[in-house]
Every structure is written in C-alpha cells, then in structure tokens.
Amino acid sequence: MPYIDCQGNLPLSLQGKIGVYGIFDQEKTLRFVGYSRDVYQSIKQHLVRQSNSWYWLKVHTIERQNRNLLESIKAAWINENLSVPIGNGADKDKWNQPIDVKQEMTAAEAAQYQDQLIDEILKKIIKKYS
C-alpha cells in the first residue's frame, strides 16, 4: 500500500494495530522491517526520521501482542528479501533512535541550550533544599 494517500495522510486504519511493517522506497526496495504495538505511531516516527526513504508499506497485523510471532514474521520478511535492509543493518540507529537535534545546533544555540539546562538543574536543587 502507499505510505501516504493522495491527501497526504498515513493509513488511519493502522492506528492502534499490533503488527509487522516493511517500508519500501520508490523503487520498491525494502529499506526497513519493524514491528510495533501501534503500527501507525511507528510509521509516523519513521516518516520524520527517514523522510526520503519511504514510499510503499507492507503490513501484517495480529489481534494480540505476541513478540515471538512478530519476531518470526520480521525474520521471514528479511530472509525473503535475501539481504538485510539498510534500516535493519548499517543505518539501524537512524531508523530507530530519536533524532539528535543537538548535532544540528549552531554554537550559539548549543550554548543557549546548555545555559537553559544549568538553569533548570539549579532551580530543581534550590526547590529541593528550600
């Protein structure tokens, strides 16, 4: 199925669904296979993390959470692909870890952020001991 419909929306039918999902690029090359307790939320996060790598979506949902079954389906899809998708291999962190915006900050933004952190810590200490 298309990752995003013609109105620019993710498939709402996947909200709250437990399942395995595969993300494909425009050439239908498998880029990532994952599983989730809420497929909709997971593909929404991947949309932000890897905005240029999604185009098509393959989903298999199940009624009740069963990690062993989800792992088995994920492994089978990767085996069918005959190679580990880049999002499950070399770029695993880019697909799964939160975006580290600190790397994109200018020196001035980083200094301001650091100052704000110190202020917050000092406020907590003062509140705790006053």
CATH top level label of the largest domain: Alpha Beta
In what range is the share of β-strand residues?
15-25%
Spatial order of strands in the largest sheet: 2-1-3
Number of domains: 2
Question: In angstroms, what separates the terminal alpha carbons?
Answer: 58 Å
- Rg result: 19 Å
Q: What is the mean predicted local confidence, pLDDT?
A: 90
Helix and strand sequence: EEHEHHH
Structure characterization notes:
The structure is a single chain. This protein has helices at residues 39-49, 67-81, 92-96, 107-128; strands at residues 18-24, 30-36, 56-62. It is of the alpha+beta class. The protein folds into two domains: 1-99, GIY-YIG endonuclease, CATH 3.40.1440.10; 101-130. It has a three-stranded antiparallel sheet with strand order 2-1-3, sandwiched between helices.
List the keywords.
41% helix; elongated; GIY-YIG endonuclease; 3 strands; alpha+beta; 2 domains; 130 residues; 3-stranded antiparallel beta sheet
Short synopsis of the structure:
The protein has 4 helices and 3 strands; from the N terminus they run ββαβααα.
Question: What secondary-structure arrangement, pairings included, does this model have?
Answer:
Layout lengths: L17 E7 L5 E7 L2 H11 L6 E7 L4 H15 L10 H5 L10 H22 L2
Antiparallel strand pairs: 1-2, 1-3
